[in-house]
Structure formats: C-alpha cells, structure tokens
# Entry
Amino acid sequence: MNNKKYYILIVVLLVMFSGVETCFSQEKYTSSNKKAIALFETALGFYSKGDLANTKNYIKAALEKDPNFIEPYLLTADIENEFQQFDKEIEAFSKIIEINPDYNPRIYYLVAKSEIKVGNYQDAETHLNKCLSYDDVDKETDSLATILIKNASFGAKAIKNPVPFNPINIGNYVNTEFKDYWPSLTADENTMMFTVQLPTKNRLPNGKTQMQEDFFITHKNEDDSWSPSSNVGPPLNTDDNEGAQAISADARFLFYTACNRKEDFGSCDIYFSEKIGNKWTTPKNIGPPISTSHWESNPSPSSDGRVLFLASGGRTDSKGGRDIYMCKKNEVGKWSEPINLGDSINTSKNEYAPFIHPDGKTLYFSSDGWPGMGGQDIFYSKLKDDGTWSSPKNIGYPINTYVDDFGLIVNTHGNMAMYSSDRKGSRDWDIYQFELYFEARPTPVNWVAGVVYDAITKQKLEANIEMFELETSKSVTCMKSDPITGSYLACILTEKNYALNVSKSGYVFYSDNFSLQGVTDFIKPYKLDVPLTPIQIGASVVLKNIFFDTDLFNLKPESKAELSVLITFINDNKNVKIEIGGHTDNIGSQEHNLKLSQNRAKAVFDYLVANGINSSRLSYKGYSFSKPISTNETEQGRALNRRTEFIVTEVK
# Structure
C-alpha cells in the first residue's frame, strides 16, 4: 500500500471513532516486516468487502509476524467500536499505548471515550490528563478531551458518593416480555400508561422481526397492587408506532409522539387525545405552532393541561442538538409559540425527555451536554421566582450510569420515582420504581377530586373548575369536568391557601376553599362532590372566600379572587338580580351582630358597584345570627355561620 492510501486509511479509522479528522501523518507503516504488512493489507481488502471473519484472521496473522505492528490494533479497535464491544476496543488501544506511549495523543482521548462508556472513570480521567499534557496535541482533540474530562471527573466522584437508590421491578403483571418504557402516571397514582415495543408479523430485509410501539395501561387495585397490564387498543394504538406519551394528572388527556404519518408536519410530531367518559377520542396532530417541519417529541403537560413542555430539534432558536421548549394554552384553547427554555437548561448538545412535576416548578430531563456519567444523564431544575430555571443538578449515581438514562417521572407526593431499565433481573427493558432521595424531590402536591352534578336532577355536568391562590388571586388551575361522568381532579400545592370555584352557564356557581398551610399528610386527597343549582329565584351561594378581620367589615385582600368570580357571574347573567346577605354567629348582642352583618354585606355591595355592577341589580341585608346553617355550640359550627352569601331575588 502506498503512503497516500495509508494516510486515507488512518483518517477513515479515526473519523469512525471520533467524528472529526485527525492529525495522523506518518509516512509509512509502523512495521518493517514485509510479511506482516502483506497480511495486514489482505485484512484491509477483506474489511473493505465487509468480510469481518477473514479480516480478523489476517489481523491475527499479521500480529503473529510483528506483535508491535500498531495499524492492525487500530483496525481492531474500529471493528470492536462498531459492534459496541468497548472492553475489546480498550484492549486494542491499550496495546498501542504499551507499544508506543507517544504514538499519538489522540489515542488517549479515544481510549478514555470508550472507558467512560463502560464506567471506568478513573482510568478515563488519567488518560485524558495524559492526552492534554502533550504540547503538540491538535486543537480538535484538545477541545474534545477538555469537555470529556468533566464527565470522567464527575463520574469518578459520583461513584465514590452514591445517592440512595433501591429500584424495585414493578412486576410481571405490568412489565411484558418485551421492551417496556416511558411510564406515565396520573396524580392519584391509580392509572399508569407506558410504551411497549412489540413484534409484528412483518420482516425486515435482514430477516429480523419488525418491531412496533403500542400503549399499554394498568390500574391500581384496592390493595395497592397493579392489575395486569393490557394493550390500550384503538383508537390510540394503530398499525404505526405510538410512543413517548404523557397522561394528564386527571387521566383525561394523552399527549404522545408519532412519526412519519401522512398528516405530519415533520419527521416526528405531537399528537393528543381526550378521554370522554370511558372512551378516548380519535387522536389528532396538535398542529402548528407546536408540530412543525422540525423534530418534536416527549410531550409533558402541566397538571391542569395549560402548559406543555416538549423536546424539539432544528428550530431557528435552537442552542444545538435537541432542546426543551415550553408553550401555553390560552383561554380559547390555542397554543402559543414554543419558547426555548434557554441556556439555564439547554446546551449545545442534546436535552430531551422533559417531565414537569405537578408542582409546576420542578423539571426533570435528560442531557448529554451537562457534566454527567457519560451519554444521557437525568437532571433536575427548579423554576425560580423570577421565571428563570436553576442550574440543573445531576440526579446522581447509581440512578444515572454510564449508559443512557431517560424517561424518569415522579409521583404527585414527590417521594417515589419511576423509570425504565434493562438492569439485571429484568426480562428486557422493564419499569422500576424507587424511593426518591430527599434532595431531588419536588414540592409535595395534593389534589382535590370529585363529581360535578345538577343539584336537582343529579345529572352529571361538564363545568368550569378554577382554583386561585387566595393571597395573590393568581389562577393556578383551570379545567373542565368530564361531560359524561362529571368527574374532575385538580392538583394543589402545599403551604398555600386556595379558593375553588365551579361554574356553568345556567347555574349559580359553587365556592369553597382549602388551606394547606402546615399540612404534612399528603396521602389523603380532598374528596369534594359539587352540586350546582340552576339559576332560579331563591337559589343561593355561600361565598366561602369572602374574608373579614374579626369583628370588622373591611374586605381582606384574599377576597379579591371570589369577588372577581361574582362579578363575572353577574355580568354573564344580565337577567338576574341578587341580594348580598351578611351572617354572624351568636357571640355578642343581637344589635351588635346585626350592624356588623349589615356592614359586611354593604362592603361587598360597594365593591361590586365600584367595579361596574349597576346598583339596581343589587341589594344587601344583614341577618345577624338569625339564620344559622350549623350549631353555635362549637367553634367549627360558629365559623360556618359567620358567612357572606348571595341569593337570587329576580330572574327576568
């Protein structure tokens, strides 16, 4: 082989290893043994034809003639790399270093790259430091080694400082004999959906069975065990692939990824389906601006479905590779343009598999751009008060390993995580669950769930459900109950006080509140069925989120959210007149309480008029303690009696 062909061979080999050209420029083989060279060139001939068996035979023969012949080891390393036999690849590179430690600095980078892939971080760190110690190392290698040494250093330290981790296979009732991955869980943890890679009847050109992705589902039994999983079936599953799904907190919406369909806008798009009653609607492409000509995948909705996180690649604002984006749904159901989460999350490499916890501010995702164990690692970040994200933290070893780790989700209470792994003991890729160590947990979240129905006919109703933070009047949840079953589920963060309003056209609205200040028991959710009363004379609503200081009648700021709902109700029902009623408990005199109740009712009346409601549609009255709705013998009963309510006095 002439020198030109030799140089091309070395460049080709090293390109396969690293993806960039190298600075190899030897003028001749490292062996002077003509028989060894002839045997090696024969090996090259077989290699160019794809005959690996004869390639290896002639490499072996060449090395028997000259054990210090470096080029056969380079070719061996390339072959082993191609088949991901990294231990054997490392052996070949190690032999080159043994023969000539100064052969080329890049060899140290290449062997370290494979050592990280098998978790040998200490040796990788040593070899990268050696690579960088050479004055004549080329700029490309120097740059790549400088980046890679961060992973080697991180991995070596992480193994010495493991995080608590005890993964438990969720069992063969759920996991199939095939690859099971992408678990997604409802807020109440009663339903789990995941992706399964199934064999089809079709055969690929090489004779192997073609695989297809479908959704499977399982439900919790009363004893907290999982029921046997089953194929979801149509309309969600089709003859095409469906995967990377996320089920909403209330189990009513499914977002997922589908690729290369006739209705697609690009290679992979986001699809969604709604569950009405017990049936899923025919899935639809979510469309622009989310689905585009670029790659979109890994959707993750917020607990109320108003915010969607996803991974996308190739957009004009990309940081490089795949990035994580966020978009919001407006009041009429239109999605905003996806917003890149920026440098605090995305790097010049790949970030994908986002999972936004129901707390709305803890994001888990996978990345190969932040320092990690090598390949894709799982990270988490917190949304700060200023709307930016905290610097991502690696979730740690052994949750993360030297292989790609992705698809982690965390339950609503924040203490348990799930992901898929092919670790020892699994039949293939299986779904595991484990207790998440404290530092990596999100803010615990509870939920309120129930059924909305007509107070008179008991018919189940579709209604608007909105929750506000009382202190800020900020809307934190906005959704609808199921039109068939009337069911709903809304997540609520700890350490907050909330107002709940349920409304529907033709009905007076329902008001309630929840205080989670100091609550530590997150296992028991709030169960609240909501009867809605049709608008008619005499229909009344206790305004549970109108607040006054003790024995005073100035409206507290926390009342603003409820008053806004009341204003909306009055404006939406032009044919209705109402009376604002003030009520007290029986502590104090009748005269004092009558004056206090009347002043409180007037405070609400004045607020409504000041905010655009015609006074002719309103009246107010104080009732003292003449109309109790509970006993005045207990503090709890007296608290219920101290109330503001309105009653419909006229319907034109």
